[in-house]
Amino acid sequence: MKKNNKIKIKVNGKLFKIDQKTTLLEYIKKVKVPIKKVAIELNHEIIDKNAIGKIKLKKNDKIEIVHFIGGG
After folding, report:
1. Average per-residue pLDDT in the chain?
2. Which of 13, 17, 39 is nearest to 27 (CA)?
3. Distance, CA of 40 to chain centre
4. What is the fold of 6-67?
């Protein structure tokens, strides 16, 4: 029997299924988020962008992606 290699994560309140070996950086690139213009929170902790490629996403992780908006 083939094992399911997908996990569920929640991004900005919506459920998504991803491959279980996906890193946070891979996910961010896949959904085309401009990494320099956002803040990323994983399970209520702000993520250091230098560590983003080392973080493997796990089942039921909660990600919040906040876009910076300039104004005057």
Report:
1. 91
2. 17
3. 7
4. Ubiquitin-like (UB roll) (3.10.20)
